[in-house]
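[Automated response] Your request has been received and processed.

Submitted sequence:
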Amino acid sequence: MKRRTCIGYIFLSLFVGLTAISASAQTGGRLTADVPFDFQVGSRALSAGEYTIRQLSSSNDGLLLLLSKGDKQSSMASTRVVEATRTSRRSRMVFNKYGERYFLASIWDSRGEGRILPQSAGERNARRETASIKNAAPEIVVVELALR
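Generated structure:
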């Protein structure tokens, strides 16, 4: 009897959690971007193209989902929410560029709320390689987002 009750609570918790994520994804903003270059999100390499960004969670360590047009490629990223010191009226994706490699660093909305992605091992390696050659910081590349 206790085992059945425990299993019931586990399934109820999973259902409530998945429902909350689904509701958040539906009510969260959907932004689109046409990224003109191949890039990396964490350890996942994505091709140039049109992407939809969906916020799966509104918590401080929220999840973002990037989906390519036609759902051919996707990547989920854990992020940390930050507030801008000054607001921009444009939503944007910010990439760090090392040589010819691009890494998604953050996504910002027009209200000044940003989502910072942690630096991946690949980005740290690219940074070290580039620093030894150029001894410079990464180039910052911005791609504008549209709300849909």
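Summary generated for your ticket: The chain has a mean pLDDT of 79. The chain is about 25% helix and 40% strand.
If you did not submit this request, please reply to this message.
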